[in-house]
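Researcher: I'd like a candidate sequence for this fold, 389 residues long. If you have to choose between options at a position, lean toward the conservative one.
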């Protein structure tokens, strides 16, 4: 499904946004918002590219049509290399703005300020409306404020998203540049009935994010909408939705072994990974490419863990599953993939979700079609793990 076409069909009079979103991004030139120091990943680590020392190399990266990284490990050195500040590509930003389809004169909340480029673009599209953009930290908020001084209608805040966005129903729309494993209900409540949320969803099974566009119901008690097939947005995690690394499980003794069914397709199809990841939100999967190559680029094995004390390895050329710990993670994964197969192997654009305060539902075709209630999600707030529905 084309994101631009669907957005236009859902909101009358939004053709102006689709026609000119790219032009707006050209007016608010991305390079004008990029910090003087950016990061590139070379030789297994993040390297600094300083404009004051190498303007040519800096410009080369800035003018590429891809996501830019400007902050790693919150500015610290010697950390694990977690990306904490990015600027989306023009393609990604255009697709998100077109899917949101903001109406002039309205109020929009943005999650993930970064350098302020997309907030400035929203300000142009809203033509006198209001933008409140939430930075991950006060340090990043200050970086954005410096670049948004020519945009007095844009308010930059930092802190827990719901707390700083104000009361329920404060906005006509919400745009997130941070990937989530499950849509936070607090975001839905901040958008008025009939308003729209546009956000990337990324289960812990890996792979790219998938753009989701939701419309809040007239009674405000739910939000429902479809996933968009293209493009696959490049995003970083909302901090409390980052998958944990899990607890190491010693490979002592003989693992449980079983045969894996349809293992070669387990990681290839984005729709299968999205479907299974939503049904099994606590599973994390890593694709490991080895020597044994089957059918082109099929990976040699999959590593799975549950953020707790269980793990599994699936050898694709056998195919067999080896498991350690109390849970049968391979069985959990392939059960979810089996449900996707049984549903007719739907593509991403055939899937949607309905969000309520105490229940999230994945559906096929339409909200009243075949559906699957999604389990609770474990998220991290600081060092505390909590449940989210």
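Model: Candidate sequence:
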């Amino acid at each position: 499904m084309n994101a631009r076409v669907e957005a236009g069909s859902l909101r009358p009079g939004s053709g102006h946004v689709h026609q000119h979103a790219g032009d707006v991004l050209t007016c608010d030139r991305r390079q004008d918002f990029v910090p003087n120091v950016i990061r590139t990943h070379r030789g297994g680590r993040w390297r600094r590219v300083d404009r004051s020392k190498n303007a040519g190399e800096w410009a080369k990266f800035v003018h590429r049509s891809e996501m830019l990284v400007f902050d790693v490990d919150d500015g610290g050195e010697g950390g694990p290399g977690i990306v904490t500040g990015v600027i989306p590509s023009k393609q990604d930003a255009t697709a998100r703005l077109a899917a949101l389809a903001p109406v002039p004169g309205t109020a929009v909340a943005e999650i993930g300020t970064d350098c302020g480029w997309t907030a400035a673009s929203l300000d142009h599209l809203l033509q006198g409306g209001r933008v409140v953009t939430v930075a991950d930290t006060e340090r990043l908020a200050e970086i954005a404020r410096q670049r948004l001084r020519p945009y007095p209608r844009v308010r930059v805040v930092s802190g827990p998203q719901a707390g700083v966005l104000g009361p329920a129903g404060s906005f006509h729309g919400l745009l997130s540049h941070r990937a989530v494993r499950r849509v936070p209900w607090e975001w839905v409540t901040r958008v008025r009935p009939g308003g729209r949320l546009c956000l990337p969803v990324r289960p812990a099974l890996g792979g790219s994010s998938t753009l989701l566009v939701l419309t809040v119901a007239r009674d405000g008690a739910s939000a429902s909408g479809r996933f968009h097939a293209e493009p696959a947005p490049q995003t970083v995690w909302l901090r409390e939705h980052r998958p944990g690394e899990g607890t190491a499980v010693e490979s002592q003794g003989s693992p449980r072994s079983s045969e894996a069914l349809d293992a070669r397709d387990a990681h290839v199809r984005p729709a299968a990974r999205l479907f299974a990841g939503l049904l099994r939100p606590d599973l994390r999967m890593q694709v490991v490419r080895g020597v044994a190559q089957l059918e082109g680029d099929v990976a040699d094995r999959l590593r799975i863990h549950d953020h707790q004390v269980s793990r599994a390895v699936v050898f694709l050329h056998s195919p067999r599953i080896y498991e350690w710990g109390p849970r049968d993670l391979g069985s959990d994964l392939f059960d979810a993939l089996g449900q996707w197969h049984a549903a007719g192997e739907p593509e991403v654009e055939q899937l949607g979700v309905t969000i309520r305060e105490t229940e999230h539902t994945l559906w096929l075709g339409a909200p009243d079609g075949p559906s699957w209630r999604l389990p609770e999600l474990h998220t991290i707030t600081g060092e505390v793990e909590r449940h989210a529905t």
